[in-house]
Amino acid sequence: MESFLADIAQNVAGNRIFVQSLIPLGVDLHAFEPTPQDVAKIEKSQILILNGCGLEEWFNNILPSLSSGKVIIEACAGIPPRQSTTSNHDDHDIDPHFWLDPNLVIHYVENIRDGFIYFDPDNAEHYKSSASQYIQELQELDAWIRTQVEKIPIEQRLLVTNHENFRYFADRYQFHVVGAIIPSVTTGATPTAQELAQLIDVIHQQNIKAVFLELGENPQLAEQIANETGVKVISGLYTHSLSSQDGPAPTYLDMIRHNVQLIVDALK
C-alpha cells in the first residue's frame, strides 16, 4: 500500500483498524519491488488495499502464495480509467493516477469504507461516519483548488510534467497537459531524442512557463530542456508519496495542497 493511500484509509478506519503503508516514503511506486520482509508483512495482514489499475504489478507475483481469507480492496474500482496517450514505450495503457484528483478519491473512500464494513460489519456505522467526514474534507479541498486555479488565466493552464500523471487533475481543473519528458504513465521508460526534440519545440511554440518535476526524480532531462528553452524547472511535487511528518506533505490533503500551490505560483 502506498503512503497516501494508507493515510486515506486511516481516515476511514479511525481507531478501529490500524493501517500501515507497505511502500516507504519517497520510493517511486513504478519501480517498487517487495522484499521478503514486505511479503511476510503482507501475509500477516488481514486487509490489503491496492490502488489498482495496474499500479501494483508486483502484487500479481505474490498473490498466488498468500493464504486465503484476506480482504483485498481495489481503491480505484469503478472509476472509468484514462488510456495512456502514448503506449508505444511499454504495455502500460491505463493511467492509474486517479488520486491526483481529490474528487476521484471520493470513490477510493467509498470502496475502502465498503471493504472495512465487509471485514468488520459490527462497526459499520463508524466507517460510514468517518468516510462521510473525510469525503466532506475532500469536497472542501476540491473547492479550494478551484479558487486557486482561477488565479491562472485559462490560456496559461499548460502543464509539462516528468511523466504522464497529471491528466486526471488536468481534466478536473481545466488544464491542458502539453507533454511529458517521459511519455509514459510509468517512470521506467526512456524518451527518444526525437521525442525530446518535439517537446522542446512545443515548449517554444506554446510559451510554456514551467516544467514540473516530482520529488526524487532524476532532474537531468528537465535541466537539459530548461537550458535549451529557458523554461523554469519546478521540482518538489509530491505525487507518489507523502513526506515525513515534518515535511510539506505529511497527509494526502497536505500533499495535494502543496502541489497545487507550486503549480499556481509557477503559472499565474
Order of helices and strands: HHEHEEEHHEHEHEHEH
Shape: globular
Counted up, domains total 2
CATH superfamily of the largest domain: Nitrogenase molybdenum iron protein domain
**Overall average residue pLDDT:** 92
Residue share in β-strands: 5-15%
**What's the CATH class of the largest domain, please?**
Alpha Beta
Number of strands: 8
**Could you estimate the helical fraction of the residues in percent?**
40-55%
Strand order in the sheet with the most strands: 1-2
Number of helices: 9
Class based on secondary structure composition and strand pairing:
alpha/beta
Q: Quickly give the CATH architecture of the largest domain.
A: 3-Layer(aba) Sandwich
CATH topology annotation of the largest domain: Rossmann fold
End-to-end span in angstroms? Answer: 35 Å
Unreliable residue runs: 87-91
Our Rg estimate from Cα atoms comes to 19 Å
Biggest sheet descriptor: 2 strands, parallel
Folded structure, characterized:
- By secondary structure, the chain is of the alpha/beta class.
- The chain has 2 domains: 143 residues, Nitrogenase molybdenum iron protein domain (Rossmann fold, 3-Layer(aba) Sandwich), CATH 3.40.50; 120 residues, Nitrogenase molybdenum iron protein domain (Rossmann fold, 3-Layer(aba) Sandwich).
- Helices cover 43% and strands 13% of the residues.
- A two-stranded parallel ribbon has the order 1-2. Strands 3-4 form a two-stranded antiparallel ribbon. Strands 5-6 form a two-stranded parallel ribbon.
- Helix 1 crosses helix 4 and helix 4 runs antiparallel to helix 5.
- The radius of gyration is 19 Å and the shape is globular.
- The two termini are 35 Å apart.
